[in-house]
């Protein structure tokens, strides 16, 4: 019964190289999630403006799109281990830069001087670009380390690792920021980041199996042409863009913690961790994955459930403000616990449903795509899963400033459910996708 319900660990036993890559990425990812939260808190502390927090994603969006497409071509054309190592080193250096900048700015603030925000945008953009290429390479490596039937189970394990990152990283960032200061959160990320190299060093050389065009216009056109005739993969990208563009609450959390629920940085960390706990639980209870054949139907249902929880989060903010039950306390003693509990449930539901969607979307893309195209398709996939949230951060910042903190999530949830129901209707190709006959 436990083997049927709980996450399947077979990929870790079958491939020690995959196991080391998985462990190293999980540890390094905890620090990466700390930095994402810490950057938002730092900029909100410096500006008091949710739009400026959302602008972090907007500034990085175009470079990340370019990096995803270019990185995918690099992954297909060169040794995947070398591409992963180079991008990981670049990301680590950018984190060290954030450490130095945060300590420097804290010293300026303590001295009564003004600190500039733009260097944070520069360094986080470099970090995002490096993470985009690293994610592209790491995912494209998985089918070279495991047989096809284990790829969906590996996707579930990656979801569990991601849930751990999102559970531990943001909560730790909130606690560290609220106790000893934001610069120390960046420093812990720099230390944990080094663990990612453990999994990369032990990988074998992973050169292209087939002849592939060198990175450039021809290679990009080949990838886009393949995507044109891959309706299942293309639709999975579209529905995920919809979910991430209209259902990302994270840029709202500093303001929600400051003026709606109370608790400031600690509330931000706990609500972010609630979403991660949902992700973690969904992956831990993913034993069913090996029995699911209709991956497209699973994707559609999971994203529509996600939209429902997004709307719930917006409704909690709206009702709390309408009842006049908001709190501006910076300590846990002044938190509106009813609003916090409901918001935490919504965050956990978002995390769980998004994880289910990600497991099947990732499996579909990796199994149905030929190896010579996996880098480029993973590049597009990485642009979607990282670029979509940046668009979402901009959407949240603009709509929250225009209509109020409640509006991005409440309206976004309605849009997600409606659009996905239309796009992935029963007659669509993705609804007929069968893992036993994986057609792109």
UniProtKB/TrEMBL annotation:
The chain crosses the membrane at residues 21-44, 50-70, 82-103, 118-137, 157-178, 184-204, 237-260, 266-289, 301-325, 337-360, 405-424. GO terms for molecular function: transmembrane transporter activity. Keywords: Cell membrane, Membrane, Transmembrane, Transmembrane helix, Transport. GO terms for cellular component: plasma membrane. It is a multi-pass membrane protein. InterPro entries: MFS (IPR011701), MFS_trans_sf (IPR036259). It is found in: Cell inner membrane. It holds the Pfam family MFS_1. This is Putative major facilitator superfamily (MFS) transporter. The lineage of its organism: Bacteria, Bacillati, Actinomycetota, Actinomycetes, Micrococcales.
